[in-house]
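#struct-help
A.M.: can someone run this one for me? Single chain, 407 residues.
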Amino acid sequence: MVNIAVLGYGTVGSGVVKILEKNHSHVSRKAGEEINVKYVLDLREFPGDPVEKVLVHDFDTIVNDPEIRVIAEAMGGLEPAFTFAKRALEKGISFCTSNKVLVEAKGAELIELAKEHNANFFFEASVGGGIPIIRPMIECLTADHFDEISGILNGTTNFMLTKMDQEGAAYEEVLSEAQALGYAERNPEADVEGHDAGRKIAILASLACEKQVSFEKVKMEGITKITGTDFAYARSLDVSIKLLGTARKKDGKLYALVAPFMVPKNDPLYAVVGVYNAIKLHGDMLENVMFYGQGAGKEATASAVVSDIQDCVRRLGSHREILWSKEQKELGDIMEYPFRFLVRVEDGDAEKLASFQAALGDADRLDAPEGVSGEAAYLTKPMTENALQAAVQAADVNVISRIRLSW
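D.P.: on it. Structure tokens below:
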């Protein structure tokens, strides 16, 4: 029997305990040892909950117990999670987590510490919830160099954009609905401004290039400025709008970005709706492969944590090599990466508009969708953000919005 501890008895932590109880024999058989939850750490009390029998409030009780071999963390935030992870690994206790903040900021350091002490640090649930993406990247798809990772990495914003697309709802309306359903927090900034997706693409990019890609260096644009008019143009082009996290290699440089993109029907990401996530990888040998599923939620995320617990149990006394060093990976300037854009500008002086179209490189002017007036819209050829800004300044036009195309 292997004794483990779970840190945090919130949504994910309680889900981990539930799976370990409900599927006890199945999970233990797959792990090769019976798994026993000896402790659950939380500051709160849970009167009447069976967890009371194993509930503790002091991490020292757990880390100083020689019977504890694996710890699963589901508290969130950088501290005290980082301190707890360090202390556990220094004692040779394997540690797994769903905490993307911890993994993005300290993943390389904790992997190194796990190696020093012949333990493991696993984090499958930190990206994509229940979607298996971390383990395939480090164990299955190891023959390829990845030159692009793109995906829908946040279920909240995908739910909101789906509602705006399919029902014509306004941003404020769908945000209120997402909050009422528990998909969005009272302060939704991490989701709607792209920060959540930014941390996830930073983790995936770090694994792909085997160096530290810092969240702070990823350019992030959210969905707060997307309007019904943007979706009207999208429908006229037979595309949809998705918030994508993407990391791409070009001319020896790595570029990372989170932003709304127009996605065509022939892209499998087009069909990903609601709270679902999908991650698409392009390798130099494999070419395209996509992983799809529930990107959040109690059972989905907890399932990934339990999978890591099983892997830790199977590997007791050994270390699984994960190539991710603390060396910083310098990113290319995303302002110099060429994209196609849909650019909407205020209608006005015909000479200025003609000058702007020419400055864009003879971009295609679009017919306005029904009910839209007072503006002109253009589809550009591939160009950099810096070149687009220069064209706007040279022609002296007022931009209403601009959205990148994914193709």
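A.M.: thanks! The chain has a mean pLDDT of 96.
D.P.: also worth noting: The radius of gyration is 23 Å.
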